[in-house]
């Protein structure tokens, strides 16, 4: 079977060149200048010069017979969704803290109802008290962009979902982009390319809500027609199947844990220190500026400002005045998007989150 030519013949261009091109076309000049400059200063950083591994070195097939396709050299993987099944893979080891990352390219065109998830979880080991860290990419009707959300749970705290939802500053179907989850004993950072888009700093008041048990890294594509697009109004149209998401340049920089004994095979404090030394767990002033620009421009829902759902903000929330004035008491933007109340749904699919995604 032929592999996509673009994945063999050329490397994807620098992500921040693409930022500049796309933002020049669709954003105001001041936003282009400030966000691109802040982001470009990160692109030359050596922090992301990590060793990548092939699929077989770190992962195994999870589900979807025939819907996981490796490239001949084992470095690239495609996950397919058709009318019979989605597909997914999982890390061969559990990790207690780490940096989990991959270059991902999402399906294009008619993607309503799709969910592509890149997340850590231990739900198979602790079904009622599991921990989780999520990237969930939500498809859309033709002509409208993908959106995505981040979330985390600790000790089974699914009733207190901590969703944030965003748009992207690029088309994630055209080229590969890197998505990364940093998890230490003190903080969690979600990255898109080299841009930190969200940080959660552990506090005593969070208690068990901060993820603390060893987790595996999962990647899945599946039919989320009941919630992913316009609150379930737009379903997956299998006329356009199979839907294909591509993955490469995997990074599993963590503290491995024995799956039976649940005992780290090395000192996880050393892992935390190593991640700090590489600049992955500490956001620089340039990173802070890039994160602020991203959040000013691309976030459209934050649980921290959802006073209907949480009259008292959860303890890790840092309320930023410039963010707060942009949201109504539902946590959604004042202009655009839906202001429907949340309705909880069951976690029946790999990587599912806990509340309805608003219309966009």
From TrEMBL:
Q: Where is this region: Disordered?
A: 330-360
Q: Which GO terms describe its biological process?
A: cell wall organization; glucan metabolic process
Name the PROSITE patterns on file.
GH16_1, GH16_2
Keyword Repeat (UniProt):
no
Q: What is its EC number?
A: 2.4.1.207
Where is composition skewed (Polar residues) in this entry?
Answer: 351-360
List all Basic residues biased stretches: 337-348
Consult the record and explain the modifications the protein receives after translation: Contains at least one intrachain disulfide bond essential for its enzymatic activity.
Per its UniProt entry, which superkingdom is the organism in? Eukaryota
Localization annotation: Secreted, Cell wall; Secreted, Extracellular space, Apoplast
Q: Name one GO molecular function term.
A: hydrolase activity, hydrolyzing O-glycosyl compounds
Provide the function of this protein.
Catalyzes xyloglucan endohydrolysis (XEH) and/or endotransglycosylation (XET). Cleaves and religates xyloglucan polymers, an essential constituent of the primary cell wall, and thereby participates in cell wall construction of growing tissues.
Family statement drawn from the similarity comment of this UniProt entry = Belongs to the glycosyl hydrolase 16 family.
- This protein is called what? Xyloglucan endotransglucosylase/hydrolase
**What is the originating organism of this protein?**
Citrus sinensis
Its taxonomic path starts at: Eukaryota, Viridiplantae, Streptophyta, Embryophyta, Tracheophyta
């Amino acid at each position: 079977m032929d592999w996509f030519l673009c994945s063999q013949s050329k490397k994807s261009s620098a992500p921040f060149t693409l930022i500049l091109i796309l933002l020049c076309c669709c954003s105001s000049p001041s936003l282009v200048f400030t966000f691109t400059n802040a982001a470009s200063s990160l692109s030359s950083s050596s922090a992301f010069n990590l060793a990548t591994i092939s699929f077989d070195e770190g992962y195994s097939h999870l589900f979807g017979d025939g819907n996981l396709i490796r490239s001949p050299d084992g470095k690239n993987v495609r996950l397919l969704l058709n009318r019979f099944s989605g597909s997914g893979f999982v890390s061969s080891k559990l990790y207690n803290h780490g940096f989990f990352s991959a270059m991902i390219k999402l399906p294009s065109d008619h993607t309503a109802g799709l969910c592509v998830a890149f997340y850590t979880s231990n739900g198979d080991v602790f079904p009622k008290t599991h921990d989780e860290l999520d990237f969930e990419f939500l498809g859309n009707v033709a002509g409208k962009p993908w959106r995505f959300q981040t979330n985390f749970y600790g000790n089974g705290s699914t009733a207190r979902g901590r969703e944030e939802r965003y748009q992207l500053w690029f088309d994630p179907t055209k080229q590969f982009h890197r998505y990364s989850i940093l998890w230490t004993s003190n903080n969690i950072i979600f990255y898109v390319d080299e841009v930190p888009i969200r940080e959660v700093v552990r506090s005593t008041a969070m208690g068990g809500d901060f993820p603390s048990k060893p987790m595996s890294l999962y990647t899945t594509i599946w039919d989320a027609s009941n919630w992913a697009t316009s609150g379930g109004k737009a379903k997956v149209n299998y006329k356009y199947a199979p839907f294909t998401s591509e993955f490469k340049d995997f990074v599993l920089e963590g503290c491995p844990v024995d799956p039976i004994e649940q005992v780290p095979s090395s000192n996880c404090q050393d892992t935390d220190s190593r991640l700090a030394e590489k600049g992955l767990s500490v956001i620089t002033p340039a990173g802070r500026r890039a994160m602020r620009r991203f959040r000013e421009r691309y976030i459209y829902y934050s649980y921290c400002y959802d006073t209907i759902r949480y009259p008292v903000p959860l303890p890790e929330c840092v309320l930023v005045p410039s963010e707060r004035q942009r949201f109504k008491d539902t946590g959604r933007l004042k202009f655009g998007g839906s202001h429907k109340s949340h309705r909880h749904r069951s976690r029946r699919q790999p990587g599912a989150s806990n509340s309805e995604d608003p219309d966009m």
